[in-house]
Structures are given as structure tokens and as C-alpha cells.
């Protein structure tokens, strides 16, 4: 039997937000106030679309973006963790569910040679247009009131598990590793035998503890991590059992 590892990307695999890091490519490494203030809650993807237009209008090319993105540091211990998972792929299926985009994640994973660790990446589709502008689209449509318009991570996880079941694959345990508010919805979908691993001091950890205080705790076990070494210790225990 296999374990399923579900990773968020920003502030989880990498120690930054890939969408805000790209601003380093902008003139004077910042965005004009009007653009910065145009974000509306739940509509991050549309906002990033405007950021990419601004970068394109200012002559920022694909190779410069790529150079900038591949300098993002991985979270402490993450390189060792991904190496460990890569060596034990017969025991772990591994997916990314992220509100970043396909271009950024692809660049970063390939530059560090980690793309083979992950079986699938679920994130907003992005591509360069014929005029050299980066464009990004919503991952899917959904009806979840808790999640941003473009992505409900619970829906992604559920559909992935259903598809795997059709192939005859079921998992002994799901381990969900994330940090953000949009990771709460999939964590609430996890069962008693599963485990949520929120990053210490980030929104997901706070939201899980608020639920526990209001006496409606999540069903799964919760193990907080501050370095990916904590996650690796847990996985090593798992495969010993």
C-alpha cells in the first residue's frame, strides 16, 4: 500500500510566494500603486494577469523571468526531503496542488531536478503568448464558497483520489503539507487516519487551532512543522511501521 503526499508550493516547497517574487523583474523592482491596489479578495489570478501585462509592457522577457524565478530559495530542509521522497517513490505518490502557475512551478522544479519526484501538478495553467507576454488562467470552476474563484483544493484532491480508485489505487494514508488559508478546505476533507502538516506560524496552523477552540476540530491528525526535516522524520517513521 502506498502513501499519498500532497504539497502546497508557495511558502511550503519554496520559502517565498512565487507570484510576488516575479515583481523583482519589474522596473525598480516594484509595481505602480494603482496596479498594486487593484487586487480584489478571491481574484488573485486576475490580478496576476494584470501584473504579467505590466511586465510585458515594460519589455520583461521570458528568459529574465526564468532567471529570476530559479533564484527562489527552497524552504529549510526541503531539498533533503524531496531527495528522500525521490529515493522512495515505490512507497509514495506525490502531487502538488497550488495557486501558483504551471510555468513558475515547472521552471523551479526542473532547475533543481525535482520534477520527477511529483506524479502530478495541479495549478493555474500559464503560457507565453505569441507576443511574449505571460498569461494565466483559472485552474477550474467550482461551487465552494470557502475558496478563491479559480481553485478549490478539496475538489482537486477528491477528483484525484476518485481517478486513482478507478485505476485500482487507494492510499494507506494521505499526508497534506501546506501553509495557507486555502489549504484548510482540503484538510477538512481528510479522514481520521490521514495527517495534516501545517507550517508553524502560518495561516493554516492558526485556522486549524481556531477550529479546535470552537470545538469543531478537523478529523485528521495534525502535526506542525517548521523545517522540512520535521516532515522527513515523520515519513521515516511511517515507512518503518
TrEMBL record:
Protein's name in the database: PHOP2 phosphatase
Entry's Gene Ontology molecular function annotations: metal ion binding; phosphatase activity
Domain of life: Eukaryota
Cofactor(s) required for function per UniProt: Mg(2+)
Positions annotated as active site in the UniProt record: 8, 10
Pfam families: Put_Phosphatase (PF06888)
InterPro entries assigned to the protein according to its UniProt record, in alphabetical order: HAD-like_sf, HAD_hydro_PyrdxlP_Pase-like, HAD_sf, Pase_PHOSPHO-typ
Family note: Belongs to the HAD-like hydrolase superfamily. PHOSPHO family.
Annotated residues for binding of substrate: 19, 99
Record SUPFAM superfamilies: HAD-like
Annotated residues for binding of Mg(2+): 8, 10, 179
Keywords, comma-separated and alphabetical: Hydrolase, Magnesium, Metal-binding
Source organism of the structure: Daphoenositta chrysoptera
Gene3D superfamilies the record matches: HAD superfamily/HAD-like
Amino acid at each position: 500500500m502506498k502513501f499519498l503526499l500532497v504539497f502546497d508550493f508557495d511558502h511550503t516547497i519554496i520559502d517565498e510566494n512565487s507570484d510576488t517574487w516575479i515583481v523583482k523583474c519589474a522596473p525598480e523592482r516594484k509595481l505602480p500603486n494603482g496596479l498594486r491596489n487593484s487586487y480584489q479578495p478571491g481574484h488573485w489570478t486576475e490580478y496576476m494577469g494584470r501584473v504579467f501585462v505590466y511586465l510585458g509592457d515594460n519589455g520583461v522577457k521570458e528568459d529574465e523571468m526564468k532567471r529570476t524565478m530559479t533564484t527562489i530559495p527552497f524552504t529549510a530542509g526541503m531539498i533533503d526531503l524531496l531527495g528522500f521522497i525521490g529515493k522512495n517513490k515505490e512507497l509514495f505518490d506525490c502531487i502538488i496542488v497550488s495557486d501558483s502557475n504551471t510555468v513558475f512551478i515547472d521552471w523551479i522544479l526542473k532547475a533543481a531536478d525535482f520534477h520527477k519526484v511529483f506524479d502530478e501538478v495541479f495549478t493555474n495553467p500559464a503560457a507565453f503568448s505569441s507576443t511574449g507576454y505571460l498569461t494565466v488562467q483559472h485552474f477550474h470552476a467550482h461551487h465552494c464558497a470557502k475558496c478563491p474563484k479559480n481553485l478549490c483544493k478539496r475538489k482537486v484532491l477528491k477528483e484525484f483520489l476518485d481517478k486513482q480508485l478507478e485505476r485500482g489505487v487507494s492510499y494507506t494514508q494521505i499526508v497534506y503539507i501546506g501553509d495557507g488559508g486555502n489549504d484548510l478546505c482540503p484538510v477538512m476533507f481528510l479522514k481520521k487516519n490521514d495527517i495534516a502538516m501545517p507550517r508553524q506560524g502560518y495561516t493554516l496552523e492558526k485556522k486549524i487551532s481556531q477550529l479546535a477552540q470552537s470545538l469543531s476540530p478537523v478529523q485528521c491528525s495534525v502535526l506542525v512543522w517548521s523545517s522540512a526535516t520535521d516532515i522527513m522524520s515523520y515519513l521515516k517513521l511511517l515507512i518503518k511501521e
